[in-house]
Write a structure and sequence with these properties.
Helix content: 25-40%
Strand order of the largest sheet: 2-1-3-8-7-4-5-6
CATH topology: Arginase, Chain A
Order of helices and strands: EHEHHHEHEHEEHEHEHHHH
CATH superfamily: Histone deacetylase domain
Number of domains: 1
Radius of gyration: 19 Å
Strand content: 5-15%
Number of helices: 12
Number of strands: 8
CATH class: Alpha Beta
Structural class: alpha/beta
Largest sheet: 8 strands, parallel
CATH architecture: 3-Layer(aba) Sandwich
Distance between the termini: 30 Å
Length: 380
Amino acid sequence: MPRKTALIYSQSFEQFSYGESHPFKVQRFRLAFELIAAYGLDRLPGAEVHQAAPVEEERLLSFHDSSYLQRMREFSSSTEPRADFLYGLGGAENPVIPGFYDWAKLGTGGTVEAARLVVDEGYTAAFNLAGGYHHAHRAKASGFSYLNDAVIAINLLLERGKRVVYLDLDAHHGDGVQEAYYDDDRVLVISIHESGIYFFPGTGFDNEAGEGSGYGYTVNIPLLAHSDDPLYMKAFDEVIYPLIAAFNPDILVTQLGADTFRTDPLTRLEITTHGYSYIMRKLAALKMPWVAMGGGGYDLMNTARAWTIAWSVMNDVKIPPALPAQFVNSISAMGYPNRMLTDAMHWADEEDRNTALDAVECSIARIRKLHFPLLIGSTQ
């Protein structure tokens, strides 16, 4: 069967700002798309670029509370400063700016369209760059996230009778998605992230495993600061990959945050494009229908490089490790020194690495003891 993929994009992704000093810069969407285009990955046989469109509010009600949506609608149309901290709206984290609700619906619509293309039209993979707002709760904005596009899209897949794996690679725990499916065995929720011991949102420990019929179907792999490429790949190979294979979902949904990288200004993990590329290739080897969305990433060039790698892997295209010359000329004028798409494997300093290794090995052992008998044992 021929490969058929879709990249979801819109120039309107950039027509919003969280504020000059806010770490979330929407310019990363354009930068990622420009790098994809510089490699010619927007013109591949069987690959299409689809324009995002806002999600219908009725679909948002599959997860979000109607009073929360009403408050966002009201605040979004106001020209006066507004805040309602009961709903997490206002302040530095989730600013209330005219039009913010429409902008959030556009990103969510992109992820819903990606899911629809995969489940209804047989696309091999669909990737929404402006998705991955995994911190949004049923009735509260959180962590730069107003609407939880992952949950809204997964709910569409569940309506179609599909079993889903949700894999979250962002440096921050996907707490909003965990909330949605904590008691649901139709979705295997896996999040590998920087430990909540000292890091937002303060959740995602390996003893958070679900409840009721969903017990065992929530899997968290918390990583200590300075976890590097080999530790990241170790956790993936020893826990994530076998669990996905055992669950054998109809559709794979991934949040591909790039804030795990060692030069990200908000995090303390030490992943590079080497470890990220490895995981993308392993996911592609599963040969499952794949819905992908962006996520975190506060070093714009890291994000552009990561999502270009992800899109190339989804299309089974190998691209040169050096950035295209025209793209280098463009980013040089903006002050970026980057010249390479791919990095060499990175090891953290020995003392930091040993501490992180001990922690991840303990987590792997606990996960194998708790989750493997439930998920892998049940397949034997």
